[in-house]
Structures are given as C-alpha cells and as structure tokens.
Amino acid sequence: MALCVTGVVTAGLVLAQAWLLSRSVSSIFATHRMDGVGRWAALLALVFCGRGLTSWATEWLSHRASAAVKSQLRGDLLRARLARPTDSSTPSGTLITLITTGLDALDGFYSKYLPQLVLAVIVPVVLAVAIGTRDVVSVVIIAVTIPLIPLFMALIGWRTEAAVRKRFRVQTRLANHFADLMSGLPTLQVFGRARAQLEGLRRTEEANRTETMRTLRISFLSSFALELLATLSVALVAVTIGFRVAAGGMDLRTSLFILILAPEVYLPVREVGARFHDSADGMAAAEAAFAVIDRAQGSPSPAPSTGAAPAPRATHSPKTHSPDTSLSAGAVDLSSPRDVPVALEDLRHTYPDSPAPALDGLDLRIEPGSLVALAGHSGGGKTTALDCLMGFLRPDSGRILVGDVDLVGASQDTWRAWRRRLAYVSQDPAMVRGSLADNLRLGAAGATDEQLRDALDRCGGHSLALDKRVDDDAEGLSAGERRRVAMARALLRVELGGAGMLVLDEPTAGLDDAAEARVLETVRGTGASVLVVSHRAAVLEGADAVVTLEAHS
C-alpha cells in the first residue's frame, strides 16, 4: 500500500515537472523574455527535491520489507531443519548457501524489482491519460507500442529464469562439493587422494563460472532489446509530433509537454525488465526455501543418509493395543512411557523416488520399563522406524501410540512434548564446542558436577575429565568416548530431565565386551522403557523382545 502511494506521488511529480518545463520554455520562446524564469526554476527545484524524497522513501520501504521477509524465511528454514534433523534431502552446503547468500539475493526483488513493478503499473497509466487529454495520436502510438515491452520481457524472462535456476543448482553443487571435501579431508589425506580432488573442484568451479557468464549474457541482451524498443517508440512519438508542429497542427507548449512525458511513460516498464534480472536469483532461492519449509510442514521427507531402503517386515509381532481416543490438534498432555506402553502399529513409509517401502507393516510394542531390540541387516529400515517414532518422519500409514494417544498427524507442539519424554543416542552422537560438562548438561541443565561425574562413570567414562575441551565435530574424543558421553547425557535426561524412554541407535558399537555389559546394566537400572537398534549379540540376548526387520527388494 505504501509503495502504491509513492507511485501515485511519483506520477504526480512527473506531470508537474513536464508542465513546468513546457510552460516555462514555451513562454520564453513566445515572449523572447526571461521574466519569471527564477520562479519557474524554484518550482522545478521543489519538484526535483520531491522526486528525490519519493525515491528515497520507496527504497527505504522496500529495504525494510526485504529485511523482514529475509528474517522470517531464515527463521522458518531453521525451524524446518530443527523439525526434521534427519532429513538429508537438503545437504548442509545447500542449506548454508540458501540461508546466507541465497536469501540475500531477495534484496534485488524487494528493493529493485517490486518498487519498479508498482511504478510500471501506476505511472504509465497516469501519464498516458494526461497525454491523451492533449493528443490522441500520441496516446494511440503509446498504447500500441508499450505492450511490446512486457511481451519481449516475458519471452526473455522465461529464458532467464531457466538459466538462473540452472546457475543456482551449479552454485549449490559447488558449495556441497567444497563442504564434502572439507569434511572428508582427513580421510583423503590418509589415502593420499587430497590433491586428486582439485581437478573435480576446478570442474565444478568452471561450471559455476560458465553458468554465471551465460546468465549475464542473457541479462545484457534483454536490457539492449528493451532499451532499443523503448527508444524507437519514443522516436516514433517525437517524429509524428515534429511533423505536426512544422505543419502548424500543434503548438509548442503541447508538443513539449508530450515529448517530456513520452520517455517517462516507457521508463518504468523498461526498468522492470532490467530489474527482473536482479530479482531472478532471489526468486530461485525463495522457491528452494519454500520447498524445504513445505517438506517440514507435512509432506514426508526424503530418505536419511542410508538412502532408499528395501522394505522390511517384522518376524515378531507383539500384541497390538487399540486406542480409545485420538489426539486433538494442539493437545500436549502425554503420559510418560514409564507408565504407559508405546506401540507402533502397521507402520508404513516409502521414501520419494524409492521403488519399495522402507517400512512395510511394522508392529512392535514396548511395555513400561521393558527393553525391545530392533535387529536386521543394515538398510532394513531400523533407523527409519526411530525417525518415525521421534516425529522426524511422517509415516504414510499406521499408528504411533503412547497409551491411548495416536501421535500420527499430531501438532508440532505435541511432538515437541513427546520428544521431551525421550532420551536419544544416535549412531554418530553430536557434540558442541566446549567442555565435557557443557555437553553432558544438554541432557539436564541443572545437573551438578557430582551428578555429571556419576553418570559418566556408570557409562565407563572414568578416564574422562569434566573440564576436558571438545572442539568442533567432537575433536579430542575417540568414537568410543563419544558414545560414553552420549550415553551419560541420555542417562541424565532420564534421571533428571523427565524423560521416560531411551531410544538408542547402536549404542554399544565400538565398545569392548566389558564396557558393553556396563552400559546395558546401567540402561536396565534406569527403569525407563528402551528401544534399541543393535546387531550385537549381548544386546539382543538381554532384550525382553527382539523385532527383526527383513529387507525385501
């Protein structure tokens, strides 16, 4: 609305400028005197100042709108990522590019393209009406030629849009390639293949350069075409006016008024075409951002890092539990898994572009305080089942029951409340930069040093000091130490943080038999319900029930 107001004010100031210039110049030619020139100059100066002030207000409004939209989109992207942390359909490099330079390109849309689009709708119409009151021939020429500009702009814009999207894909591929190289650099160094990756990086960089130059060529070509069309249109108006002035069919004041307004009619439309290229990058980034957000708001997200998994089928099907009620939208009152059973009933999930379902009729039941193990070949859908249980994936069908409450289709608030009841240890436990104590307190913020020490000792971390520093990517800790810290953190969440269920994904991988026995004893000692994914014989033998997932092609 504010931009519409500035557009109307701009049109009025352009009319005032044309009227003052035509009136003053024609008066001088008619009288051959300079009387009143100072007054005309002062009025023109006020008009010029008004146009400058209006231009500043338009830019200020558009920049403010751009900042608000970018902030909102960045927040939505981060919330979408937090809602589905296991979704690998958007690699980290792509997400980083999107949140930073990608969304920054929206400045071109909001601060350049959108204001010009508003002016292109308002100013030409107002000025054409003003010209039509003075000369019908000129307004007919304008009415015939001005639609050609958006027509050519659309034709060129379609080509530009395709080129920009391709360039954005290449740019994100370059970002992902670089991020992958950085994360895998130690392995590449060990195998002596670090320098061999330079050629692939150069090819990706060259592809990015090529696509950028192709987009710029289209941009410059379209600008030339629009400028040429607008110039020829103004020239056509000027030539017809010149003939009529020479023949005495039009006075000087009217001809000057129309000649001054004619370029101003085409200018906003011409600028829209030029600014379209400024907006193309931002629109491509916005579409990618909306795709990530839309996936997090309901549609099943694509496969985690294991890729499309063949369909498993449970060889053990515990007794099912029929719910009495379903969860209403917004409800967050959930019983603790210590008090009620948790059941997955006929759970099915298929990843996009996968020929077979990852889960096909999975049934399992976890009684309060029991330990249920998920076993089967790698890629059989065990991690997918955990992701569905924690709300990171939405199953295609089936039910996830906590007592009598079905979580499938529940609100995000309900899923957050459910996750507060869980303590999770992944295959690759994440650590934050800081001390071991900082990482342990992620499970229970109010835990004392004595409680941290006790939990760590019970998980076999006697040799680990609480003040030991942990760098990015858990540098400074071995794989086994990371698992011990993660298990201790989960114990603190169960004992002090209110969680009633442990969800463990290969918690004893990399541990020796003695350490594994201590971890299992500690887990049993919590009294919490446990769902564990494992291939280890000791874990499967100690479980109350084992559900084996068999892969099917």
Automatic annotation (TrEMBL):
The keyword Ribonucleoprotein does not apply. It is a multi-pass membrane protein. One of its GO terms (molecular function) is ABC-type transporter activity. Residues 342-553 form the ABC transporter domain. CDD domains: ABC_6TM_AarD_CydD (cd18584), ABCC_MRP_Like (cd03228). GO terms for biological process: cysteine transport. It is found in: Cell membrane. SMART domains: AAA. This is ABC transporter ATP-binding protein.
